[in-house]
Design a protein that fits this description.
Length: 294
């Protein structure tokens, strides 16, 4: 009868090594001994400087007091230009590009005309469908995506750019006209996308000149060249409306730690906040967080 070997693995034939990794409880005890945690808490302690930094991060955030809306000059210029021309609006995120589209849609619906609002993403399409349904009435808004088809005969259709392009192809094959008077192409910079840009290109080229286009984007750097290309392929005049400057709504970056604490992503000097390093995962399986030395 063979004797059972001691201290060796049946699989490797080598002596088992003692696992030197610490348990979660031991790890937290060690950090508590070092003073990383407040008494009775497992959250890392926050210095006074960090508290002040967090206060500055959160200052001013909340629901602002209601103010009367006054359109910016670029918004009124766009609405004036779109009565007779195609319009390309380039403006920072949050500056009010969609307001231009909404006001023109409102005017078109009042005149019993039809409009299309195209987006690059199904999620954005669903969001705009809900938003416009509340604003213009659900009976006036339909949605067309690869997954949804609701109220397809509505005067305002919200859909992905691919679906609008497909309708243009169908109309070309059948010899009929696309049943719309106005098309908003949101996120028009997707025309430069390596994989999907041809969809935007085809949608612009195949749209009959009688359909006015409103193209919205925050990131078109060569607006003049873009507008010139549209004029060439469509035979229409394109008005460029540019709102210069930074975005009106300030972005603040923060890191939400696994223990639900919030830390500014950058420090007061505008550099990476190294306090966040203490949460870097070194061992995902065991759920421990250790400081990374850099």
């Amino acid at each position: 009868m063979a004797r059972k070997r001691r201290g060796k693995s049946r699989h490797s034939g080598k002596p088992k090594k003692k696992n030197k990794s610490r348990s979660n409880s031991g790890y937290f005890k060690e950090r508590k001994r070092r003073g990383d945690f407040a008494e009775g808490d497992r959250k890392p302690g926050i210095s006074e400087a960090q508290k002040e930094s967090l206060k500055r991060l959160l200052s001013g955030i909340g629901i602002p007091e209601p103010q009367p809306f006054v359109p910016d000059e670029f918004q009124t210029d766009a609405l004036e230009a779109i009565e007779t021309n195609d319009v390309l609006v380039t403006a920072p995120t949050g500056s009010g590009k969609t307001w231009i589209a909404r006001e023109e849609i409102r005017r078109l619906l009042a005149d019993r005309k039809r409009a299309w609002y195209t987006t690059p993403l199904k999620a954005l399409t669903n969001s705009k469908y809900a938003e416009f349904g509340e604003e213009f009435g659900s009976e006036n808004v339909g949605i067309l995506t690869g997954d949804r088809k609701e109220n397809a005969d509505a005067p305002l259709i919200v859909g992905t750019t691919e679906i609008y392009r497909n309708q243009l192809f169908d109309a070309l094959r059948s010899g009929e006209q696309v049943n719309t008077d106005f098309v908003i192409i949101d996120e028009a910079h997707y025309l430069a996308d390596e994989y999907r840009g041809h969809v935007w290109e085809e949608a612009i080229i195949l749209s009959p000149p009688r359909i006015r286009l409103l193209l919205l984007s925050a990131t078109i750097g060569n607006a003049k060249e873009f507008a010139g290309w549209i004029e060439e392929v469509r035979g229409t005049k394109v008005e460029i409306i540019n709102r210069a400057g930074s975005r009106p709504v300030e972005l603040r970056a923060a890191f939400l730690a696994p223990n639900t604490q919030l830390f500014p992503l950058v420090n007061d000097e505008g550099k990476y906040n190294r306090v966040i390093n203490q949460f870097a995962r070194k061992d995902n399986d065991q759920g421990r967080y250790r400081r990374i030395r850099r």
